[in-house]
Design brief:
Number of helices: 11
Helix content: 55-70%
Keywords: Endoplasmic reticulum, Glycosyltransferase, GPI-anchor biosynthesis, Membrane, Signal, Transferase, Transmembrane, Transmembrane helix
Largest sheet: none
Low-confidence stretches: 189-194
Membrane topology: Multi-pass membrane protein
Radius of gyration: 20 Å
Order of helices and strands: HHHHHHHHHHH
Pathway: Glycolipid biosynthesis; glycosylphosphatidylinositol-anchor biosynthesis
Shape: flat
Number of strands: 0
Pfam family, one: Mannosyl_trans
GO molecular function, one term: alpha-1,4-mannosyltransferase activity
Length: about 240
């Protein structure tokens, strides 16, 4: 990629950061001056849950908190530093998704024009900008999913499985993507070895070393995080 293209990409990231900072500042103004709030109602729930954690309690002391305790821990700076911490944190993850899109796209052979449009479609999408700056935790889900995809395209099955186990612990619904990852890992060009050999049934031929590794490591990560949360907070 030429110097001009790199400068364009860098400028896109700079503009995306500025845009999100402006929206975060606007959120404080709108919340203080309008009946309709900019901030997601769940953001206040996260913050209250984090306050209970900081005081040595359980995040589930906050009614309607329905997320893993780790989210409240991550947002403890909302209480300790500044109430806008979470919005900056989620917006940073939102920007990081753009970086992962570039990395994956380059690895998959996308040209500079395609990379630019893919990046712009994410960084300047009004939905993604609003979601992260309103204080929704969806950016955390997005970055963990893209970390999974990035690791898979790099052939790093263990790293991908850890990221996937983490995201399923944080938000259960990404479990629906498991079959897609299994199919990706089963492709011949990934160099997998079928555990049951060429003479095995068609169904069993999908059971490969990489698929088993992905399933075991992601499950272990999920259950370890869940068990740890239960041990500390009982839920």
């Amino acid at each position: 990629m030429g110097a001009r293209r790199r400068n364009d990409m860098n400028m896109a990231f700079v503009c995306a950061v500025i845009l999100r900072l402006v929206l975060i500042a606007w959120s404080a103004y709108q919340d203080a001056n309008f009946d309709v709030k900019y901030t997601d109602i769940d953001y206040f729930v996260y913050t209250d849950a984090a306050r209970h954690v900081v005081r040595g309690g359980s995040p589930y002391e906050r009614a309607t908190y329905r997320y893993p305790p780790l989210l409240a821990v991550l947002l403890a700076p909302n209480v300790l530093v500044h109430e806008m911490w979470g919005k900056v944190f989620f917006s940073t993850l939102d920007i990081a998704v753009g970086g992962l899109i570039l990395k994956i796209g380059r690895r998959r052979g996308m040209n500079a024009r395609e990379l630019k449009y893919a990046l712009w479609c994410w960084l300047f999408n009004p939905f993604t900008c609003a979601i992260s700056t309103r204080g929704s935790c969806e950016a955390l889900t997005g970055v963990l999913m893209l970390l999974t995809v990035e690791a898979l395209t790099a052939g790093a099955t263990t790293r991908a499985a850890i990221a996937y186990g983490f995201v399923v612990h944080m938000r259960l619904y990404p479990i629906i993507h498991a079959l897609m990852f299994v199919a990706f890992l089963n492709k011949d060009y990934m160099g997998n070895r079928a555990l049951f050999g060429k003479r095995g049934s068609k169904a069993l031929s999908w059971v490969t070393v990489e698929n088993v590794k992905f399933a075991v490591v992601s499950s272990a990560t999920f259950f370890a995080l869940t068990a740890g949360s239960y041990a500390v907070y009982g839920m």
